[in-house]
Each structure stands twice: as C-alpha cells, then as structure tokens.
Specification:
By secondary structure, this protein is an alpha/beta fold. It has two domains: 2-215, P-loop containing nucleotide triphosphate hydrolases (Rossmann fold, 3-Layer(aba) Sandwich), CATH 3.40.50.300; 224-298, Alpha-Beta Plaits (2-Layer Sandwich), CATH 3.30.70. Helix content is 33%, strand content 27%. The chain contains ten helices and 14 strands. It has helices at residues 42-49, 93-103, 108-121, 136-148, 166-178, 192-198, 216-222, 236-244, 265-274, 289-296, and strands spanning 2-13, 16-27, 31-36, 57-62, 65-66, 78-81, 154-157, 184-189, 201-206, 209-215, 228-232, 249-250, 255-258, 279-284. The radius of gyration is 24 Å and the shape is elongated. The two termini are 34 Å apart. Bound molecules: adenosine-5'-triphosphate (ATP).
C-alpha cells in the first residue's frame, strides 16, 4: 500500500512553475528520499502535503485520505520536522514533549511513556539542560522525537541532515533508519550519500518534473552500466586497444575506461590474453547514486 500519493500536482508561484504535473507514490514502511537541488521545490511539495499551500491542480492523499488546503484532518497521520525547527528554549526536552503531548490531547500516561521512549531513541534520554543550550544536531533530534510523539503513519523531514557535521548527520540518519517498520519516512535532501546510506526508495525533482523514481535497488539495476577501468603495464598497448574498441575513454597515464554495453568482463579478459596485453588490474566500476543523478538531472 502507498501511504502517500500525489497525482498530477501542479504548483506555480506567479509565472514560475515549481511543480509541473508531478505524480509520486510513497510505499508504506519505506524510507523515501526526495532529492532536488536548492530551490527545486522540495519544501513546496511538503507544504502541499501538509495542506499549508494550495496546488492549482492535482490530488494528494495521505493514508488514503485526501488532503485539503487549510484543513488538517490528514495531518493527524503525519509527523513533520521542518528544516529549522523552533522550540521554547527555556524548556528541557522532556518538558517540551510534555507540552506538545498536552496540546495534542495525549493522556498523561501516554505522554510519559512515549516521551521516555522517544528521548532514549534520539539519544536525549539523559539530557537535563534547557533547549537553548542545544547544538543544531540535538535540536534536530528533539524535532524528530516531537514529530514522532503522535505515532504518525508518515514522518516528513525537510532536509534533516543538510546543515549538520558528519557526526550529526550520521546520528540523524541512524535514527531515521532505526524507525523503519514503525512509520514511513519521507525526507528531502540534496546529499546523495545520505540517500544511499538509508533509503529504500527515492524520487528526483528537477525543473518541476520527477525525472527519476523507484526503489534504489531497481534503479541501480535499470541504470547499471557495464564499465571497466583497466590499468595497462605498457602505455604502447593503449593505442592498439583504442583502435579495436571504439568509444574507449582515455583516463590518462596507463588507464583506460571500457564502457561498451555489449562488452563482458570475460570477452575483455580473453581479448587481452589473446593479444598478450599485460595489465596491472581490471576493475568493474560500481554504479553509485551520483552517476545516476548526473544522468537524469540537467546541470
Ligand atoms: N511563497 C513563495 N512565493 C514565491 N516563491 C516561492 C515561495 N515559496 C518558495 N518559492 C520559490 O519556489 C522555489 C522552490 O522553493 P522550495 O523552498 O520549495 O525549494 P527547495 O527545493 O526546498 O529548496 P532548498 O533546498 O533551497 O530548501 C524557489 O525558487 C523559491 O524561491
């Protein structure tokens, strides 16, 4: 089942089209990475899902419920972490979650149980200082705890890791990965390695269109390229190979890149053996998300 469905969403600010009839489905229990360059329209999409902005056309459903602009019924299924979460700095984390729980109508018992569980989950269980002294990473972690308070079916995080140092980013990514199975996570980012580390599914937004979407595993197979890097012993063999296999890339030194779709590792090795061409190594080039991104996004 898809927990979130966007169908033919069109959104413009004045003359500027931000989302040009985009459709997107987020499978339940996935960790879904929403990728786009700065200004691509990621926050706009999230605000549409939360009913905080109105699309000119299209439909959004959360857990099967249509989203209506200005009404927040479907938001009862959503936990939201904005890119810069705001808190009451004079409170402690526990006081803050207690306050949020009371606003949302949770019982005292549930607030206590849930707060303890969530503060431990985000590594703030032993933290007794006031929030005003928190680092940015700690605030993001508290923001995740707050967004999870109501046991949402969908957790939406707007660039939760982008402004953090590597350790802070790792902590956030570990938390998001750890809650897989408890809720579905949709998070936006422009850091491709973060997607690669934890996401099961992704979509790339570029110039108002979804230019790539699907499960990470399927996309890597679909866009896989058969490419080998060969390091030769004698540079004199380079010219010969380049004449035999058109389209080879000269990587400088004694390095060549073979990227012909029809050239198997076996055929290449056989050829090198037959012609007695010596090499230091042959390396199959793994497809990473950055290669994929470069193929689909206009630079
Ligand atoms: N209320 C608004 N009125 C006019 N233009 C807006 C408004 N909100 C956003 N925009 C513009 O829409 C475009 C998309 O903005 P958005 O914040 O959704 O992008 P983003 O992908 O989240 O970017 P970033 O990664 O920088 O946060 C930008 O060009 C932005 O300037």
């Amino acid at each position: 089942m898809d927990i979130l469905e966007l169908t033919n969403i069109h959104k413009a600010f004045g003359e500027k089209i931000i989302l040009d009839d985009i459709s997107l489905s987020v499978p339940e229990n996935s960790i879904f990475g929403f990728i786009g360059k700065n200004g691509a329209g990621k926050t706009t999409t999230m605000k549409l899902i939360l009913g905080l902005l109105k699309a000119e056309r299209g439909q959004i459903k959360v857990a099967g419920e249509p989203v209506t602009y200005g009404q927040t019924a479907s938001n009862s299924f959503i936990g939201y972490l904005p890119d810069v979460p705001e808190f009451y700095g004079f409170m402690t984390a526990s006081e803050y979650l207690n306050f949020c729980g009371e606003i949302t109508g949770l019982s005292k018992y549930d607030i206590k149980q849930r707060s303890k569980y969530l503060l431990d989950l985000v590594g703030l269980g032993q933290e007794s200082h006031r929030i005003k002294g928190y680092s940015r990473g700690m605030k993001q972690r508290l923001g995740i705890a707050q967004a999870l308070l109501n046991q949402p079916k969908l957790l939406i995080c707007d660039e939760p890791s982008s402004a953090l140092d590597p350790l802070g980013r790792k902590e956030i990514l570990d938390i998001l990965k750890g809650i897989k199975g408890e809720t579905t996570v949709l998070f936006s980012t422009h850091i491709l390695s973060d997607i690669e580390r934890i996401c099961t599914d992704l979509a790339v937004l570029d110039k108002g269109k979804i230019v790539l979407k699907g499960s990470l595993a399927d996309l890597k197979i679909a866009y896989q390229h058969h490419s080998f890097q060969v390091e030769l012993i004698a540079s004199a063999d380079k010219a010969h190979l380049m004449a035999t296999f058109p389209g080879l890339k000269d990587l400088g030194g004694n390095f060549l890149e073979f990227n012909q779709q029809d050239l198997s590792e076996f055929r290449l090795l056989t050829y090198l053996a037959e012609k007695q061409i010596s090499f230091v190594k042959i390396e199959k080039q793994a497809m990473n998300l950055e290669d994929l991104f470069m193929q689909v996004v206009s630079l």
